């Protein structure tokens, strides 16, 4: 299974929803909280063009945020992405 990395903040409802989907699917993920970490937010901006959370990677693929994660799930493509290694 591909490694999943998610950047979050503690009180972000979109972060909670994204993690709930991954939890329901039994997907382990590496979570990095960016609360009060402008350096990490700047890194996200450089890597993705966004400072918002969540920002999610499956393997080397940048999925985007919560909406994009759920779009992948509805299309069936999330399982394919997770299965790639």
Number of helices: 4
Mean pLDDT: 95
Helicity range: 40-55%
State the separation between the terminal residues, measured CA to CA.
Answer: 6 Å
% residues in beta strands: 15-25%
**What is the spatial order of strands in the main beta sheet?**
2-1-3-4
Structural class, please?
alpha+beta
Number of strands: 4
Q: What is the rounded Rg?
A: 12 Å
Gross geometry: globular
Element-level helix/strand string = EHEHEEHH
The biggest sheet amounts to: 4 strands, mixed
Poorly predicted ranges: none
Family: Belongs to the glutaredoxin family.
Pfam families: Glutaredoxin
Organism: Spongiibacter thalassae
InterPro entries: GLR_AS (IPR011767), Glutaredoxin (IPR002109), Glutaredoxin_subgr (IPR014025), GRX_bact (IPR011900), Thioredoxin-like_sf (IPR036249)
Key attributes of the depicted protein:
single chain, 85 residues, alpha+beta, four-stranded mixed beta sheet, 4 helices, globular, cytoplasm, Glutaredoxin, Glutaredoxin_subgr
Question: How would you characterize this protein structure?
Answer:
The protein has 85 residues and is an alpha+beta fold. The chain is built from four helices and four strands; from the N terminus they run βαβαββαα. The protein has helices at residues 13-24, 38-48, 66-75, 77-83, and strands at 4-8, 30-33, 55-58, 61-64. A four-stranded mixed β-sheet has the order 2-1-3-4, with helices on one face. It starts with a strand and ends with a helix. The mean pLDDT is 95. Residues 4-63 form the Glutaredoxin domain. Keywords: Cytoplasm, Disulfide bond, Electron transport, Redox-active center, Transport.
């Amino acid at each position: 299974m591909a490694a999943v990395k998610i950047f979050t903040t503690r009180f972000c409802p979109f972060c909670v929803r994204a993690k709930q989907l991954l939890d329901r699917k039994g997907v382990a993920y590496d979570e990095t909280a960016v609360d009060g970490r402008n350096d990490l937010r700047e890194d996200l901006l450089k890597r993705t063009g966004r400072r918002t959370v969540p920002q999610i990677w499956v393997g080397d693929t940048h999925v985007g945020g919560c909406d994009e994660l759920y779009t992948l799930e509805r299309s069936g493509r999330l399982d394919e992405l997770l299965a790639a290694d």
